[in-house]
Amino acid sequence: MSRIVSIAITHHRLPLDPPFKASWDGRPRRHFDATIVRVRDDGGREGIGSGDLMKGFEGHEDLFVGEDPRRLERHYEVLSHINFHYGRCWPLDLALWDLAGKVTGEPVWRMLGGRADRVRLYASSGVLRDPAAMAEQAERYIAEGFPAMKVRFSASAGGRSGWRDDVKALEAIRARAGDRLELMVDCNQGWRMPWDTTLPWTFKDALAVARELERLGIYWMEEPLHRSDRKGMKALKEATDIRIAGGEMTRELSEFRDIIEERAFDVIQPDVALVGGITGCRRLAFQAREAGIAFTPHSWTNGIGVLANAHLTAGAGDAPFLEYPYDAPEWSEARRDYPLKAPLRHENGWLLLGETPGLGIVLDEERLAATRIG
């Protein structure tokens, strides 16, 4: 019998020089923060998770210490209550799955159903480059074996001058890549950074953009309207041939349930590090499949979050692609995965998960010690 003996949370910061200017944030990012959650059992094993800041968790350790880490549904219920009263503490769910895998000797993808031990990736860009540079980036993705690329549109006045300029960048990519890449577009209209008061698109704005994306053969159109406008998303879904995707920052599983029941989206994108953990999002994978909706998680996080979303997608889902945040040099694999001993490496556009028990995480303890801020 395995029993949890401790839970430790640390915070880390990697300076970014040159900075990363994300399309969804007009302010250059000069550092990248990571929160690491460690759950230890009485056998000396350690489960690792990462994601949100774990605000509000302090003082609740006693709800888990002494329990069997494999009681994952029980732990999910407790975390759902903490989520209601305090903050999003789902990284602990990831750590519990990692520890449960180490206790049982199985990789998480097999514990989740074992559909596959690998996932096909799409390269998720983050920087607003000029059209020629975007086309060059697409060419590099093709050379590395990626089957698809996600292109970002400007979230606010901090980016390009408007969606027509965004379309020009997309046209340059399509002209260069032809049909060698599937292209997705993230419209960045679902949510804003706290300082950004730019209004999201109206329905007619989004429909005008959708007509342009139809012309360019885009695979999906992500977050084209504010996150609360489910009726608008459904109307847009019915008015265009483009798949409508969203939900990356949705906070409650019940909201996803309603999205699925209403057939409001073609593609849902929960992130196990932000909503429900692996335990909760596993439910969504099955619900979405029954409704004919694609399930492909958001995973713009560090390599721990990428791995957790990949294990769920491989083990229980059947997504055509999984997000792989990767836009070198500003967002390289080394920057993204600095908590890890070695960055994740795709193989010709695939992420192989292997047979290592748990999530397969190996931390770089020296780097974590050097970057610790709390």
UniProtKB/TrEMBL annotation:
Mandelate racemase/muconate lactonizing enzyme C-terminal domain segment(s): 131-243
Gene3D superfamilies: Enolase-like C-terminal domain, Enolase-like, N-terminal domain
Cofactor(s) named in the record: Mg(2+)
GO molecular function: hydro-lyase activity; magnesium ion binding
GO biological process: carbohydrate catabolic process
Transmembrane segments: none
Keywords: Magnesium, Metal-binding
Protein name stated in the entry: L-alanine-DL-glutamate epimerase-like enolase superfamily enzyme
Organism the protein comes from: Shinella fusca
